[in-house]
Amino acid sequence: MTSPFRTASPGRTARYATCYRVYRPQRAARLRLVCFPHAGGSPSFYRRWVQHLPDWVELAIALYPGREDRFGDEQFDRLDLLADELADALVPAMDRPTALLGHSMGAAVAYEVARRVENRGKDLTRLIVSAHPGPHRQRPNRVHLRDDDGLIADVVAQDAASAARFEDAALRELVLPTIRADYRLIETYRPDAPARVRAPITAVINDDDVEVDADEARGWGDCTGAGFEFRQMPGGHFHLVEHEEEFVRWLLTQVRVDPPSWPSTP
Fold it and tell me: Is beta strand 20-21 parallel, antiparallel or unpaired with respect to 57-62?
């Protein structure tokens, strides 16, 4: 597959290809939209979005260790270490305007990646955080310490459609360690104070999502020195895939960019 960016050394290209999946490379894209999945999530969570995105957007999706073709990679025990890896891989690929979107746990990952890429002199067009409180407003929780049935109950309460994958004993044994590790990452994530990013932030939640309320989500406004927008939509915790076309249509209003200033690629 053709490299999704033009200017990077072979070693750095390999690192990006390890940590991100691009299902439909767009070499002339005006924007790279980088998505970060929820706890237990993988790139396939966003894969169908490519059919709704215009050619001026290239979709890249973070692949965390411990799933899909990184199944054998050791998972991190701290969210900041995961963010370090993902930022290291992303910075060389930032050859065009880039926006980050994170859902649920992915919102915290996207925020920490944003902090790191900005600290290296890169600018983002926008950070979009979905279904998660501001980092300093996160609720304390210990779900990762529950037994398997208790952990599964929490997953299914947020996404009833996920119940089927736990009915098969072999599949259950395969996926539960990854889910538990992700829960541990986000439940032990405790930033001291909300550090501000330069990028504007949009926070979006859904009416029926019990994981975050409007006041907690508005806390993301403390995390930016630029503009802040808040949006509340109908639906539950996974509205962005349950009603993906509607969500992507709205998302494009948040990430639209001017025509590129770099030379076009033949």
Answer: antiparallel
Compute the distance between CA of residue 228 and CA of residue 32 in angstroms, rounded to an integer: 21
DSSP per-residue letters across 219-246: GGGGGBSS-EEEEEESS-TTHHHHTHHH
Q: How does pLDDT run across 65-123, given as a tens digit for each residue?
A: 998 889 889 999 999 999 999 999 999 999 999 999 999 999 999 999 999 999 999 99
Q: Is 162 a catalytic residue?
A: no
105-119 helix and 79-90 helix, angle to the nearest 10 degrees: 50
Question: Considering only CA atoms, which of 61, 57, 34, 56 is closest in space to residue 46?
Answer: 61
Domain 10-138+189-255 has CATH 3.40.50.1820: yes
pTM score: 0.89
Q: Which one from 3, 9, 104, 264 is the annotated catalytic residue?
A: 104
Do residues 198 and 225 lie in contact, with contact meaning Cβ atoms separated by under 8 Å? yes
pLDDT for 164 equals 72
Asked if pLDDT for residue 192 goes beyond 80, the answer is no
111 neighbors 194 (Cβ within 8 angstroms) = no
pLDDT at 60 over 80: yes
As a dihedral over the C-alpha atoms of residue 197, residue 46, residue 240, residue 181, rounded to 10 degrees, the angle is -70
Place of tokens 């004993």: 169
Residue-wise pLDDT tens digits, 221-240: 999 989 999 999 998 888 88
Query: Distance between CA 114 and CA 96 in Å, rounded?
Result: 15
Q: What is the DSSP letter of 60?
A: E
From the CB of residue 226, how many other CB atoms can be counted at a distance below 10 Å?
13
Domain ranges of the chain: 10-138+189-255
Distances in Å between the alpha carbon of 80 and those of 6, 26, 87, 111, 185? 28, 30, 10, 10, 9
- Write the single-letter amino acid at 26: Q
